[in-house]
Amino acid sequence: MNKKIRLFLALLLAFVMCLAFVNFASAAVDPTQINKAAITKKLVTPYGVDITLLQARFTFRVRALSVSGTNYNPASANMPLFGESGTINTSDGSGTFSVGYGTTRATWTKTASDWTAPDYPDTYFIETGDIFAGYTWTSPGDYLYEITENPNTYTQKGIYPNPNSDKMEYSPAVYRVTVYVRAYVSTDIIPPGKQVGDIYIYGIGAIRVTTEGGTPGSEKVDPTPGTDREDMEYSGMTFTNKYGKVNGNPGGGDPDPRVESHRTLYVRKAVAGNTGDSSKYFNFEMTINNPTVVSGSKTVYRAYVVDTATGTIVTSTANGAASGNNYIEFTAGYMRTFSLRHGQSLVFVDTPVGMWYSITEKASDHIPSAIAVYDAGANTPLTAGLANTDYVLPGTMPQAVRMLMFVGERLGGMSFTNTRTDGGPITGLNINDLPFVGLIALAAGALVVFVVAKSRKRRRNYN
After folding, report:
1. 135 and 49 in one domain?
2. pLDDT for 9-28, tens place per residue?
3. Are residues 376 and 415 in the same domain?
4. Which H helix or E strand runs over 63?
5. Which residues contact 126 (CB under 8 A, 6 or more apart)?
6. Do 153 and 233 belong to one domain?
7. 3-state secondary structure of 31
8. Mean pLDDT across the stretch 97-116?
9. Mean pLDDT, range 221-226, rounded to an integer
10. The dihedral formed by the CA atoms of 366, 368, 372 and 373, expressed in degrees to the nearest 10
């Protein structure tokens, strides 16, 4: 008997779970307040992309498939069709909804950034609102619709990942949505203004039949608009697009590293102090990392050494360039060494927005007196006074500074100033090493005390 009860309870639980993502109207509430469905456009970008500059419009196709097992028939118009004005196509039973640039729903909402990923991608969303709103249903039945995104609605700039180009990757997801339409009966708690026999949406169920990865699926999702629920910001019927871009010459054409407005990232070197050596080369280690949101980024990048004041290209083997080259090659994901002297800058002209980088200046006889992080072409540093040689990303650098070490929409970079003044050369001692130096000094002091004590004891014994 107990086995039968357990089996019954297990079947009951399975049945309840199957209904979990079908929004059925409760007899105790007004069904018109809970049975809605919205389409969500999610857009994922690398950190630093300004989507207010993105003039992209996204459209979704809602196509009638069947009602209670009978296929859509354009001749008999046995199913209502849904879409914005002027988009209905009765021959195939489809209509279109749109969001984004140039539409009534063009304001993106940003979700929490993904701090677990190394490149901190950002996610934004826009909803269509209830796609079944405003329609008066006339016949009970189970109405099945298919929802897809129309691809290639955005005209991409250039050929990614060339300078002044971008790339939009579209969602292949497909949803099947069933609208359960019923008539009120006398046993229902009928909302004000309604009566027995009136037709209403009893429930809406949605299944993702093709995943965001393009594979077959069967996941149930909740299509309720985010404005009508407390547990989610947006409808679960989402189409996720990925967007990336590369800046460069704003006027088009090949970027010129001698022109500041063509540059996308820089590292500057300056020497200060009355005994500072402006002819000395300072050594750096730098790693650049491609954003992972979109595919197709370059692997190898060229950086040029220019005179900071004049912009003249001065790259030489002393900077780390190969003989005969006026550039230094950097491979994404790998550390590269280079050298700069006072008044020189290392500049890139084709790094994608969202590229993140780490950099270390090696110790020298000039103390690192200031490290400043610049962004968006600012003339004053966003962060300054970081006198340390091992601020690298990630790790010891404060998160507020790490987040600035990304390639943004406009020119940004880092400036390193080293100082040497009267009073003798500085050996390159790092302030982080002071605790260890102190321990060594204490150990040396203890050794001296021990040796002196032993020496005195031997003299006493000898006497």
Report:
1. yes
2. 555 555 444 444 455 443 33
3. yes
4. strand 57-67
5. 40, 41, 58, 99, 100, 105, 106, 107, 108, 109
6. yes
7. helix
8. 87
9. 91
10. 110
Query: Cα 318 to chain center, whole Å?
Result: 37
Which pLDDT value is given to residue 434? Answer: 36
Residue 309 lies in a domain: yes
Residue 216's domain comprises 20-246
Q: With a cut of 90, say whether residue 418 has pLDDT above it.
A: no
pLDDT at position 284 is: 92
Would you say residue 440 has pLDDT above 60? no
Regarding whether 240 and 314 lie in a shared domain, the answer is: no
Domain of 338: which CATH number? 2.60.40.1140
Rg (the chain; Cα; Å): 33
pLDDT, residue 413, reads 85
**Residue 399 phi/psi, 5° resolution?**
-60, -35
The answer to whether residue 455 is domain-embedded is no
Q: Are residues 107 and 32 in the same domain?
A: yes
CA torsion through residues 388, 413, 241, 225, sign: positive
Specify the pTM. 0.78
Residue 452 covered by a domain: no
The token duo for 251 is: 């006027």
Sheet of 38-45, strand order: 109-110, 122-130, 38-45, 238-246, 165-169
Which tens digits make up the pLDDT trace of 343-385?
999 999 999 999 988 888 888 888 766 666 665 444 444 444 4
First-residue to last-residue Cα distance in the chain? 103
Q: 């118009």: which residue's tokens?
A: 77
Q: Alpha-carbon distance 347 to 341, whole Å?
A: 14
Most confident of 259-263, 287-291, 300-304: 300-304
Q: Give strand ranges (E) for 196-334.
A: 199-210, 216-221, 238-246, 265-272, 281-289, 300-307, 328-331
Number of domains observed in the structure of the chain:
2
CA distance 96 to 82: 7
Residues 166, 300 within the same domain: no
Statement to judge: residues 307 and 408 lie in one domain? yes
Q: Is residue 97 part of a domain?
A: yes
More confident residue, 285 or 437: 285
